[in-house]
Amino acid sequence: MSGAARWSVVVLVLAVAGVVALWPRGEDAASPVIPQPQRDTSQRADLGVARNKAALRPCDQFAGPGGGTSASAAPTSTSAGPEALRGATAVCLGDGERVDAAAALSGRVLVNFWASWCAPCREELRVLDDYSQRPGAIPVLGVQVKSGEADGLDLLSRIGVHLPSLVDESDALLKAFKVPPTLPASFLVGADGSIAPVTDPLVFSSVDQVREVVG
Question: Are 165 and 56 in contact (CB under 8 A)?
């Protein structure tokens, strides 16, 4: 074998040895470190600021016989409000407090289900907010579904609506009221805890329509 050929063999052997030394072998080999994506906190909603801006009327105006809507006390079989809501809770959009849903609906209340992405909901919310401030109006409670709190607060701020609203994050109210797949949807809760869907009209467009329904 010539000198040049021998040097070629030596170079090849050294190259192979170098590759083998660098290749991970079994459990002793260090696993490659994969950088974990950093959580983007810049997009995190500041709900406190959003709540102050929205300035919603408080949910505690919907007080049951016990004088409040706090979920700290477990509701019993004798609690007021719709039986289907006994034990269900929701979050008050205005202050983030958890609310006993049955206690919140312990009298005659017009309940309106809405979502931040629902275009027809926006005009109806304005009508309901207007109605709720008229003399002789019964309480109106909004229930935000299928959308985030920050989006709901932003919507209400933009359209100037201050209706108290609950956030039904667990869909408990959505199921109890048997809300149809289309929004908005309104229901009249009776003093006896009965629940009657509002079907005429399906969407309120005037205060007079609301008055006609609630009587």
Answer: yes
